[in-house]
Amino acid sequence: METLPLFLPILFGLTVLGSLILFYLAIRSKTFLILAIGWITLQSVLGLSGIYQNTELVPPRLMLFGVLPTLIFITLTFVTEKGRAFIDRVNLKTLTHFHSIRIPVEIVLLLLYYNQVMSVYITFEGTNFDIISGITAPIVGYLAFRKSTKRQLLIWWNMLCLLLLFNVVVTAVLALPSPFQQLAFDQPNIAVMYFPFNLLPAFVVPLVLFAHLISFRQLTGKSELAEFQRR
Question: What is the rounded distance in angstroms from the CA atom of residue 154 to the CA atom of residue 109?
Fold first, then answer.
């Protein structure tokens, strides 16, 4: 990792910052902003400490200390009354545009592959087509909210993008150096075990998942239908 050009971690750091800003613009919650900054700080410390570089543990530490807590947070948000009230206030239009952040993420992944610290399977030269989500986000964001909210378009688009996300997540797990590895033995995903790239599975990807789940709740929830018609 010491041989990586300096611009790569800087570019990814800006991508993490961009994802945080775009998501905050959709939710406008200082509480979330404080929690997110705290989580990014904690994950940065863990990434710098080298704790994620042990590849023999089951489950891998990256999943245990990086991914699992975010999934617990997302679950609690949906199962608690305050959490549901919070996500029902999220601006759906801004949240749709948030997914544009997936474009720089895919560019970073490709550059990491060229620098031999990421599997080709995790890039759009392999089996990762998640860049489609990023490219179509501003287009769908414009079309779906022009004059009136087009709920069916948003539902189908979110479903497609969620499938693309699941595809790359499963592939990434199978290409991660761990007892679960099934792919890319010649060039596995070692970048995500180091700072700042550990923030991809520990922050950016869970944020994208969270955004899709919020969108589905708003698009399918009966209590939010009147709100869509007013936007």
Answer: 27
